[in-house]
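Example 252, ligand 9D3.
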Amino acid sequence: MQIYILTLFPEMFAGPFDASIIKRAREKGLVQIHLVNIRDFSKNRHQTVDDAPFGGGAGMVMAAEPVFEAVEWVQRQSGQTGPVVLLSPAGQPFNQALARELSREEFLVLICGHYEGIDERVREHLVTAEISIGDYVLTGGELPAMVVVDAVTRLIPGVLGRGASVDEESFSNFLLEYPQYTRPREYRGYSVPEILVSGHHGQIRAWRRRQSLLRTLENRPDLLQKAELSAEDKQILKEVREQLQKLDLNVP
Ligand code: 9D3
C-alpha cells in the first residue's frame, strides 16, 4: 500500500514509523509512507498556506490552493487514485471497521489539517472521507494521521506474524480483552488467579469469557449492545447487574 501524508509539519512524523511493526512492514515493502509538505505548493512569495476567514472571525483558515495542488501532484506523479482522507475534528469517528476498509486500498492520501479550519472547497471537491479519532481537541491532524496509519498498516496481510489473529481481537467482537498473566506465579505477593494454572481448559475459557464480559460492562457498556452474546453470557451479565443493584451501585 502507498500512503501519502500531506502536512505542514513533516518533521513530526520522524520516530513513530521508524520502530516496531510499522518499521518492519516498511522494510518488507508492504507499506510505503510518503511525506509531502503542503507548504511546497504555496504559490506566493512568503510560502504562506493560510489566510483570514471571509466574513470575519478569529484564527486563520488553510487555503484551498496548496492542498488541491499537493493532492493533484501526488496523483500525477504516482499515477494512482484512491481515497482522499481529511483528518478533522468534524469527521466520522475512526473505528476498527473503517481501519479494515482502508487496509484494502492500494493508495491512500491523508491530509492533516491545521489552523482553525480548512477552506470548505477542499471538503466539497477534493476530499472523499473525513475522519476524527475522538472527542478531544488536538493541535492538528498529524497525530490522528499517525493513528490511522498504525491501525491500517497492521491489518495489511503479512504485517503481523502468524498466530496474531486479527479477527479474534476486541473491537472485532465488541468485547474488551480478558486479563493476561505470565511468570512468575507470584510477584510481590500478588498471585496469578489459580484457575489459569489449573490446566482445566474448559474452566479457563469460561473464566476468560466472564472477565471479558465484566470488563466490558465496567468500562464500555456501550459495546455490549453490539456484541454477540450467548444465553450463558446474558445470564452472567444479568446476575452481575442484579448483584450491583443490590449494592446500590449505578449500572447501565
Ligand atoms: C473552532 C473549533 N475547533 C474544532 C473543535 C477548531 C479546531 C481545533 C483543533 C480545528 C482543528 C483542530 C486540530 N485537530 C485536528 O485537526 C484533528 C482532530 C482533533 O482535534 N481531535 C480528534 N480527531 C482529530 S482529526 C484532526
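Summary: Residues 87-89, 113, 116-117, 132-134, 136-141, 144 surround 9D3 (CB under 6 Å).
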